[in-house]
What does this fold into?
Amino acid sequence: MIPEPIRAQLDAIHIEPGRPLIISDADEVLFAFMAGLETYLQGEGLSFDFSSFAITGNVKDSDGRALDQAAVRTHLGTFFERHTGELHPVDGAAEALAELSEEAQVVVLSNIPLARRAARASALARHGMDYPLIANEGAKGPAVSALFARARAPAVFIDDIPHNHASVREHADDVHRLHFVADTRLAKLIPKADDSHARADTWPEARPIIERHLFGG
It folds into this structure.
């Protein structure tokens, strides 16, 4: 069920049994993905229309025409190739995780091309978030389930995409699911994910939710 490249990354990281676990997405949780993408698109003579919580259909040319899915995928690939290491961190992310990691272990589970894993890991370390990183592909439930089974302790999953919460609910329902969308423009376009337990869009909001579930505080 878990592709070999992802399985190999899972096997390579140490998970301490019995220690609370935080599994965090990167884009729009730890890094300001949309702000970076917008800057890239502007450099390509394109724009992003914040009409819905989706990328396809909202990337538009100078005449206001939406790019098709294939063109959007090409631009996303180019964006990750050129700018993965340049994204700015979300306010408060590094500080909150540093304090939470005194009692919990942290894993970053990011849907990013495997070829960009090193650039993402470098950016995480540079911004004070040097935690184990898994470059995932597709639904996140299977990887979360594997990590949770090894931790055998309370766990929190943090992500901006609703279908990732649905996947984690399917594969690891005992993991507490926190819906987090850092970009305020995107956050306004989508309600709390149906399959999440809670919603917080800033780290000062998120931290007490995480603490209550992991430590009972």
Remarks:
- The beta strands are 21-24, 47-48, 59-60, 105-111, 133-136, 155-159, 176-179, 198-199.
- The longest helix spans residues 69-83.
- The first strand starts at residue 21 and ends at 24.
